[in-house]
Design a protein that fits this description.
The chain has helices spanning 23-33, 61-69, 78-81, 87-102, 118-135, 139-148, 185-191, 200-214, 257-269; strands at 9-14, 17-20, 38-41, 54-59, 73-77, 181-182, 218-221, 229-232, 243-248, 273-280, 285-291. The protein is an alpha+beta fold and 297 residues long. A six-stranded mixed β-sheet has the order 3-4-2-1-5-6. A five-stranded mixed β-sheet has the order 7-8-9-10-11. Helix 9 links the parallel strand 9 (243-248) and strand 10 (273-280). The longest helix is centred in the middle third of the chain and has 18 residues, at 118-135. It is flat, with a radius of gyration of 27 Å. The model is unreliable at 139-164 (pLDDT under 50).
Length: 297
């Protein structure tokens, strides 16, 4: 079967934001292309928290432009890719779904969430035992039931051993789903699903981002540190960022002295150097200047 994406990584566009739904594609982007993105999905086993997140992976607009312009990825309009299914397609899909559910082994006993502590598990098992004792007609039948089918859950069992998992498909396999792909930013802009970059400032950011990327750096969002990106010498899971990058769209861009002081103080307070990245459209080159706070006397 031929690959509808021609070996490129599909970036699913929703409200002009790009998402990666495949775990393999997210790993390839990080390991091969130095693109990290941000996980934004809820974990099925720990849905009521936002410390650890999962798929989909959301990409910055500069990352999207970089990947598409270098032929690594293509854009997919998911809204236009889903068509209205026919009655025959719905009937066939329902039959396949019922057949798949019938092959899933049924679990017996108490369903224990994986985040349940051992003490809570012990109390739950005690409540279940008291409830069974009240509903059981006789002690002999209870002993017989225990001998024939012993409960797989015991108070000594660890909650980690009782964990369960979910399988979530990374791509749509509906018969009425036909990928609407765009292999260039121009095609996506004409289709109305992607507009970035529209301004000279955005174009300068894309150019600077690609220049840093070609030097082997990893970039992350720098909003919390007063810049455009955080610049890492390697994978952010292994290294701290060395720079907070701010893009100047042209060599004639004015910078107030108070901004220079703020950049220096903020960079020093966060143990980083603030880097000004000046893009020159006439020469198509980037000039870099780093600011650090220094003591005198």
């Amino acid at each position: 079967m031929s690959d509808p994406h021609d070996g490129k990584i599909p970036l699913h566009i929703s409200n002009e934001t790009a998402f990666v739904w495949s775990l393999d594609d997210a790993a390839t982007l990080r390991a091969t292309y130095h693109i990290c993105g941000v996980l934004t999905g809820t974990l099925p086993q720990a849905a009521q928290q936002n410390v650890f997140l999962g798929l989909p992976l959301m990409l910055m607009p500069e990352e999207v432009v970089l990947l598409v312009n270098n032929g690594v990825a293509l854009l997919i309009d998911d809204s236009a890719s889903h068509t209205s299914p026919s009655a025959e397609e719905l009937s066939l899909w329902n039959e396949q779904r019922r057949a798949a559910l019938s092959r899933v082994p049924k679990k017996t006993g108490l369903l224990v969430p994986p985040t349940l502590s051992d003490e809570a598990l012990k109390r739950r098992l005690e409540r279940q035992k008291r409830k069974e004792a009240q509903t059981t007609p006789s002690v002999e039948s209870e002993e017989l039931m225990t001998l024939e089918s012993p409960s797989p859950l015991t108070p000594k069992a660890s909650s980690k051993e009782l964990s369960y998992s979910f399988t979530i498909p990374a791509a749509s396999d509906f018969p009425w789903y036909h990928s609407k792909c765009y292999s260039s930013i121009k095609e996506a802009r004409n289709a109305g699903i992607w507009k970035y970059p529209e301004t000279p400032e955005a174009q300068a950011k894309c150019a600077v981002f690609e220049d840093l990327w070609k030097q082997g750096y990893f970039m992350g969002n720098g909003l919390r540190f007063g810049g455009d990106w955080l610049v890492y010498p390697g994978d952010p899971l292994r290294f701290h960022s060395h720079f907070v990058a701010t893009v100047l769209p042209s060599p004639t861009t004015e910078i107030q002295p108070i901004q220079i002081v703020a950049y220096g103080r903020l960079g020093t307070a966060t143990k980083k150097a603030h880097m000004l990245c000046c893009w020159d459209e006439s020469t198509r080159k980037v000039s870099y200047y780093s600011i650090e706070w220094a003591g005198f006397g």
